[in-house]
Amino acid sequence: MSSEQKKLGLLALTALVISSSIGSGIFGISTDMAESASPGAAIIAWIVVGLGVLMLCLSLINLINKRPDLSGILSYAEAGFGPFGGFISGWGYWLSAWLGNVAFATMMMSALAYFFPVFGNGNNLISIIVASVILWLMFFLVNRGVESAAALNTIITICKLVPLFAFIVIAIFSFKADVFTANFWGTLSGNFETKEVFSQIQNSMMVLMWVFVGIEGAAMMADRAESKSVAGKSTILGLVGLLFVYILISILPYGLMEREAIAELGQPAMGYLLASLVGPWGAAFVNIGLIISIFGCWLSWTMLPAETTLLMAKGNLLPKKFGELNEAKSPTFSLFFMTVLTQLFIFTLLFTDKAYNFAYSLCTAAIFVSWIFVTLYQAKYSFENREKKGEMLQFVIGVLGTIFYLWAIWASGIEYFLLCLTVYILGIFLYVKGRKEAGVEKVFSSKEYITIAFIVVGAAISIYMLATGQIAM
Question: Domain holding 242: CATH number?
Answer without folding.
Answer: 1.20.1740.10
